[in-house]
Write a structure and sequence with these properties.
193 residues; mainly alpha; AhpD-like; 2 domains; 8 helices; 0% strand
């Protein structure tokens, strides 16, 4: 990756609007990782740069992560599928440990990263994997995948799943465009060609 395009903002450099976004990103504590100088890692510095849209975006992220109707395993599987599709090392770095903590099998996580067959045993996870794959491939769901995902997760779950795919795709684009690196000392993430 080429050099980072924006120098991360330190907390002492923030204006009032940016401090409000930082406060929201800091709830719950530990939600966002920081560098030793207090600047935010990952996509979150970009949210500070444009605090009005950043506030809305962080609200969507918080809703998806902390108040979602999606089961945790479904949410993390879907996030990893988006990260692998966009080859977003930072998203993978942030969410692979969450997927493991949620109990997704190592073999399934490895299959997502390497582009192997993603065949969860759980009905909702299977429906979500198929739906996310089709959304990423075509930007739409056919009637069969819509019926499977609403049958497994309900209408609210199906809508949230499409929101999640859009949200993490947007973050992947920002991470790539802004050339945001993995944190110092993080293991590289390899996606096969």
């Amino acid at each position: 990756m080429t050099q980072r395009r924006l120098r991360p903002l330190r907390p002492d450099e923030l204006d009032a609007e940016q401090r409000e976004v930082l406060a929201a990103l800091s709830d719950p504590p530990g939600r966002v990782q920081r560098d030793p100088d207090g600047s935010l890692q990952g996509p979150f510095d970009a949210m500070l740069r444009a605090p009005r849209s950043g506030a809305a975006l962080q609200g969507v992220g918080a809703a998806l992560r902390y108040r979602s109707v999606l089961p945790e395993r479904v949410r993390e599987l879907a996030t990893l599928l988006v990260a692998a599709h966009h080859r977003s090392a930072y998203e993978w770095h942030a969410h692979a440990p969450l997927a493991a903590a949620a109990g997704l099998p190592d073999e399934l996580v490895a299959a997502v990263r390497t582009g192997g067959p993603v065949e969860p045993h759980d009905r909702a996870e299977r429906a979500a994997a198929a739906a996310v794959g089709q959304l990423l491939e075509t930007g739409d769901l056919d009637d069969e995948n819509w019926a499977a995902i609403t049958g497994a997760l309900g209408e609210a779950g199906a809508v949230e799943l499409t929101t999640l795919v859009g949200y993490y795709s947007l973050l992947a684009m920002q991470l790539r465009t802004l050339r945001v690196p993995l944190p110092n000392g993080a293991a590289p993430v390899d996606f096969p060609a």
